[in-house]
Amino acid sequence: GDSVTQMEGPVTLSEEACLTINCTYTATGYPSLFWYVQYPGEGLQLLLKATKADDKGSNKGFEATYRKETTSFHLEKGSVQVSDSAVYFCALSRQGAQKLVFGQGTRLTINP
Amino acid sequence: EAGVTQFPSHSVIEKGQTVTLRCDPISGHDNLYWYRRVMGKEIKFLLHFVKESKQDESGMPNNRFLAERTGGTYSTLKVQPAELEDSGVYFCASNRPGQESGYTFGSGTRLTVV
Fold it and tell me: Which end of chain B has fewer CB atoms within 10 angstroms, the N or the C?
């Protein structure tokens, strides 16, 4: 079945450091790929998405590129801030399907 | 617009008791979903309502879980009787038909079974 694997957390970085959170997936066909973020005390929010190979999703300084050849969708940011501290979830949905398949989440803590 | 509301935000119950979680979706959102995250693992799909009908309940773990959406508005998820392994965070989400990625999630209900 479909699955998403994220790098193990927690991840702790200093402010202005570079961030990469790895995400790989297994799915038939051409799924859509997403990154969701959960800030403390809040619900999940869509951070960015990509719907086809080589698409790049971006938002709030974060980027992720849909790599079909490596079945990956790694999340990157060049300079993180304390306010980026949250749990990040990689997810996919099959074409035409409503439900999401999530990875296990990566807790990110940014220290000032 | 108001977001997806879930309550309670936290619930602690003893093994064998019954708990009912409630989700109020965004008004006009026909699709309603339940997900849960157990023990820091991945968030897993439980079921999907379209209005009052269950479109997909393939993720429901067993018959101790009962979801309803009477009238196609709010939804409840009842666990009876609760077991220790049911502990986790239960998320609700909603969207309009065709909004494949336009989910709005609630803040979740943290359920602890002791």
Answer: N
